[in-house]
Amino acid sequence: MAANKKKIGVFIVLGLIAIVFIVSLVNRRGGDSYKEVSALKVVSHYVRDEVSARGDVKAVQEMQVVSQVSGIVSEVLVEDGQRVVRGQVLFRLDTTDIGGQLYQAESALASARLAVRRELINLRIAYQEAKNVLESAEKEYARVSELHEIGSASDEELRRAKDALESARQQLSSAKQQLNLREGLPPDANRPEELSEIDYIVENSPEVKQAKANLESARQNIGRYVISASIPGIVGTVAATRGMVVAPGTPLAYIYDDSVLEILSYVDEVDVPGVKKGSPVRIESDLALDKELFGWVSWISPIIEASASGKTARVKIRLSDDSKGYVRIGASCSVFIGGDERLSPVIPLDAYFIENSKQYVWILVPYESSAKQGGASDMGNKASVESENDSFYNGNGFEIGKSINTDGLYVTKKQEIETGTLGPGYIEVTSGLKEGDYILASSDMLITEGMQVKIADVSDSVKPSEEGENE
């Protein structure tokens, strides 16, 4: 009885083995029963080495609003987050104590103008009178001289007429010098035939100019009590409150010009040689997880500085106009600075897998080429495929670029590869594949070495973004 049960068990095992063999044979030779797969044709595209770093978004132009004078805040005209334009009034300080200074300066200017005008008019009158006196003295001297020649005038009368003439000349000279000086002319200059406008002379007199300067100083001083925006942008935290006492240099608010944004990043000193001004930059931000942002390197610090994370160099990255709308000032982000550009094969991330710290893809070989290369008519002999076709699987045994016959059979081969630069959705292959090779589109766990498959569809391997290619 026990022997019969033992025989039955052996038959069951043999039957299961037979079933497995038949299923396997059908999977290998059964036409429509072959596994259908999606394939990728390996293509090459431009890729760049990337230097990664962290950074913070900043405004290229920003302004700390501070008080220039001591005083008391009387008006706060802005609030946090408000957008302002250049010249917009932000705060006013109380001007009660200095209001009299402006009034005094205005009064002094009016007084100076009046005084100069009066003096000018008086000097012109005095000059004209001196001219008249000289003219009379000249006539008198001529009359006395004629009388003296005929003996009708004494020597004393001639001397007095001569002295009067000399005195009139001196008075006219003195009047001319004073008038010239008042009008801004050299003292001994000849008087112009046409007199200058009184208003012109008044406004250009030293007294009036000084009074104007004093008034401008008073206006500027009182203008410091009105605090305006010197740049357009968004107001940050407003620190000032109404009634607050301030001193020169007291911070009142911050303004950030968000029309041009940049990222201040810190690049490790080891990576600095690979960073060039103008290099394209790919940016990732938590504020725009579904967006790929871009910029370029605008400045590289010539100094390596010590920080908590090691020795780094500051690098400024200018955000493109299309990208700046997705980030905010103060936000942190990751930057990937592009280095040298080269043409290399690329594959999608899903197309390769890792075993024992090595990277592999499933490469596809036409059944007929594989059989011919291996010298075996039965591709069920996996040992023959694995041991004899290494050179073929490395891409040296069939015509690259020849169109695949999707009605035919293909054999899978696990191909070791080495990878390079990681991009958005793709990775560079530095060895093990080349342009024109065909691979499985994904690392299917059900695929085994030497499996015969049919190709359902073929497409090019993943293409990097246009920005990554052309920048």
Automatic annotation (TrEMBL):
Domain Multidrug export protein EmrA/FarA alpha-helical hairpin: 96-224
Domain of life: Bacteria
Domain Lipoyl-binding: 62-93
Annotated spans, Disordered: 173-192
Assigned keywords, A-Z: Coiled coil
Record localization: Cell envelope
Pfam family, one: Biotin_lipoyl
The protein's name: Efflux RND transporter periplasmic adaptor subunit
Lineage: Bacteria, Pseudomonadati, Spirochaetota, Spirochaetia, Winmispirales
